[in-house]
Amino acid sequence: MVEVANKHSCLLGEGPVWDEKTNTICWVDIINGDIHELNPATGFFKTINVNSMVGAIAICTNGDFLAAIKEGLAIVKRETGELNLFSNPESHLPGNRFNDGKCDPEGRFWVGSMSIDELPDAGSLYVLDMNNQVAKKIEHTTISNGMAWSLDHQTFYYIDTPTLKVVAYDYEKSSGIITNPRTVITIDEKDGYPDGMTIDAEGMLWIAHWGGWQLTRWDPLTSEKLFSIPLPVANVTSCTFGGDNFQDLYITTAKKGLTEEELAQQSLAGNLFVWKNSGYKGLPVFKCKYFGHPAA
């Protein structure tokens, strides 16, 4: 069912994004500062190194990447790798880095920060809006991770990994305001910690489990776990749908934190996996709109 999509092994693979214009799956290796791009049909594989930890990427309307790197938010030219840093809401917090990030239905970029040493409550969730303004949305997070928006664009789902919860917020599309937080999914610690997340065309949430050897599918309206997909590696980090009909499920993994013995047992740790023709369908990712920064 699940197979290796690319044999390149990441230290901390994360943040997969499918680009339907180029038919490529893009993802990052956070610690090594790599942005990877793979065309599954042709085998074309490319890496851009940004010389900094890169927590997340989004695809801009012109095809370039918006990247959340250690030093802030930057535009990365897809063809040349040229990097243009334009904003850093945490310039006063050198011990932090950015982690997971995604675009919302209006093209705003949401991104969370965290302590490099994973100190509790050291991070926040930010949003970059249409006016090139960065606003703080959630404070005192620890490991900011999975994000998704409901099919009707009225609910925002969010994971702060150590809480073992998916929290839903009322989401106002026009303003980006989130209110009324409530827990809709609680993960059992023995199943691994919730990491990255995506939503499918039926409104169900798919959650990667760090330390859990699995990916799970949930109904956020009933809090029911529908099923789990076993993986041959412990640290499953995120997922997204891609392919011609968005029916291929791509899954990122990591080998960070594994002992020599564990690495020997998990030879595929850090690889990108795919479940082709999964029988489930995803949706195109939202693209980042330009916000008036110098790269516009």
Task: Summarize, please.
The protein has 296 residues and is mainly beta. It has one helix spanning 260-265, and strands at residues 2-6, 13-19, 24-29, 34-38, 45-49, 54-59, 65-69, 72-76, 83-87, 96-103, 109-115, 123-128, 134-141, 144-149, 155-160, 165-171, 178-186, 193-199, 205-210, 214-219, 224-230, 235-242, 248-254, 272-275. A hairpin with a 5-residue loop joins strand 18 and strand 19.
List keywords for this structure.
Neuraminidase, 24 strands, mainly beta, 296 residues, single chain, four-stranded antiparallel β-sheet
Number of strands: 24
Number of helix segments? Answer: 1
Q: Provide the number of structural domains.
A: 1
Order of helices and strands: EEEEEEEEEEEEEEEEEEEEEEEHE
Largest sheet: 4 strands, antiparallel
Helix content bin: under 10%
Strand content: over 45%
How are the strands of the largest sheet arranged?
1-24-23-22
Supply the CATH superfamily name. Answer: TolB, C-terminal domain
Q: Helix- and strand-based class?
A: mainly beta
Basic shape: globular
How would you state the average pLDDT, rounded?
96
